């Protein structure tokens, strides 16, 4: 016998999926490539969607086109939220595509598409907007609970919502849950309780060392989880992940080099240089070797080509600015106008060597004109990834060299980051594969399959 239609509807209603809350696209930029058009179409028809795409795949064009569609459909404004200093580049991009975007920091609405920094959100009224875009939405996990809650509450009152990021961690399930919650599909705690189990066996030990609870899939949870994620999000590293031709999206080579700096005196009166083990030891190793590491970084930057230098301490930034004759620093103490002027000066070629920290400039900015990155290592794979991807991204025409300057005592740091990099690559490959499989299953799913009932 076949399933009764009413029962089929009942089963369909029980599925936790992102519902279609959008509309048919009214605007499609002619400059968009085929895969970009497909992503725009998906986001507009869905209404509340997330685009997890690698750097340089055109997320800016896609969310600008999405915003323009919402404006034309509702005749109401759309607000775009970005990290600091990204707004200026977005306005430039919008001009290229014939889309009007105006900046605002005081809550005013000077155009149908308004752009501002996340930190300025409190000045705006959600009732003024029909849509909101969160650019580099993975930044939400870096905010404290109050700021993240403010953004989620703001979005909850807006009909159309879009998240766009290159670094949604595929093994950070809480981040996927907060994205879902912001879009209005399922709260992050509801998601964890539905698909995951808290690893109670190690919870006491984890609390002792201040670690977050470890969540693992329930026995039946993995496939339904990815099927649910792909109902409101798309992940993309290259166009072929969704069946399109990669064409011009083949990246040049990435050349990664490690430079170990010789330090005369071992740490803490040791006879030999040993890797620092604990976090305090590693921090002390970094501080006591600042001058030697900066000297090596300055020597590597001694050429006429653009170079981007990521540092971690203020003392490093000041030393590098002194040691590299034409270097310019962007620091947290500067006024916003100064920071933006210097970032744009680097983009336009007026500044050759830029020195800054990841938390200031590693999200959203495009530095394809630069093919040399110098860094000091940290445990954060995301910081490293974003720092490199400012330059090594689609649109870069030259091989990109990344020089990591460290001491023998920092070897554990670089080893830990490499481990995280390998894990992140494997997890994202699994994410893309699982989501594509889930999309195929979802498209072909039917509850009308004949069922055999027991004789009794």
Head-to-tail CA distance between termini: 15 Å
Residue fraction in strands? 15-25%
CATH domain class name of the largest domain: Alpha Beta
Major sheet strand order: 3-4-2-5-6-1-9
Largest sheet: 7 strands, parallel
Under CATH, the topology of the largest domain is which?
Rossmann fold
Mean pLDDT: 82
CATH homologous superfamily title of the largest domain: Tandem AAA-ATPase domain
Proper CATH architecture of the largest domain:
3-Layer(aba) Sandwich
Structural class of the secondary elements? Answer: alpha/beta
Number of domains: 2
Helix content class: 40-55%
β-strand number: 15
Show unreliable segments. 11-18, 203-211, 445-449
- With helices defined by DSSP (H or I, 4 residues minimum), what is the helix count? 16
Shape: globular
Summed up:
With 456 residues, the protein is an alpha/beta fold.
């Amino acid at each position: 016998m076949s399933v009764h239609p009413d029962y089929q509807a009942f089963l369909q209603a029980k599925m936790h999926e992102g519902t279609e809350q959008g509309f048919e696209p009214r605007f499609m930029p002619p400059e968009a490539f085929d895969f970009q058009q497909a992503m725009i179409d998906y986001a507009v028809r869905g209404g509340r969607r997330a685009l997890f795409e690698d750097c340089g795949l055109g997320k800016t064009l896609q969310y600008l086109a999405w915003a323009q569609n919402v404006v034309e459909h509702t005749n109401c404004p759309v607000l775009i939220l970005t990290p600091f200093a990204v707004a200026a580049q977005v306005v430039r991009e919008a001009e290229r595509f014939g889309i009007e975007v105006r900046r605002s920091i005081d809550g005013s609405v000077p155009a149908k598409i308004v752009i501002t920094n996340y930190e300025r959100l409190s000045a705006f009224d959600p009732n003024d907007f029909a849509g909101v875009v969160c650019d580099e939405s993975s930044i939400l996990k870096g905010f404290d609970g109050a700021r993240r809650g403010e953004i989620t509450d703001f979005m909850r009152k807006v009909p159309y919502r879009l998240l766009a990021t290159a670094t949604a961690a595929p093994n950070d399930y809480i981040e996927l849950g907060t994205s879902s919650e912001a879009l209005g599909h399922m709260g992050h705690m509801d998601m964890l309780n539905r698909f995951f189990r808290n690893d109670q066996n190690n919870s006491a030990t984890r609390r002792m060392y201040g670690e977050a609870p470890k969540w693992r899939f329930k026995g039946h949870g993995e496939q339904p989880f990815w099927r649910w994620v792909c109902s409101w999000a798309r992940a993309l590293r290259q166009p072929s992940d969704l069946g399109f031709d990669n064409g011009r999206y083949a990246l040049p080579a990435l050349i990664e080099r490690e430079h170990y700096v010789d330090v005369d005196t071992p740490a803490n009166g040791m006879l030999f240089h040993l890797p620092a083990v604990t976090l305090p030891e590693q921090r002390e190793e970094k501080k006591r070797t600042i001058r030697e590491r900066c000297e090596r970084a300055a020597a590597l930057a001694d050429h006429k080509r653009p170079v981007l230098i990521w540092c971690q301490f203020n003392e490093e930034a000041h030393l590098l600015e002194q040691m590299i004759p034409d270097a310019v620093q962007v620091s947290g103490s500067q006024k916003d106008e100064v920071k933006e002027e210097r970032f744009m000066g680097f983009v336009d070629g007026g500044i050759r060597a830029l020195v800054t920290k990841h938390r200031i400039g590693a999200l959203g900015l495009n530095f394809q004109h630069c093919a040399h990155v110098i860094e000091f290592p940290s445990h954060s794979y995301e910081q490293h990834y974003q720092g490199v991807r400012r330059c090594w991204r689609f649109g870069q025409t030259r091989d990109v060299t990344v020089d990591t300057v460290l001491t023998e005592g920092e070897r554990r740091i670089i080893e830990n980051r490499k481990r995280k990099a390998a894990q992140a690559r494997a997890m994202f490959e699994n994410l893309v594969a699982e989501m594509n499989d889930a999309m195929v299953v979802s498209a072909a799913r039917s509850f009308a399959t004949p069922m055999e009932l027991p004789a009794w």
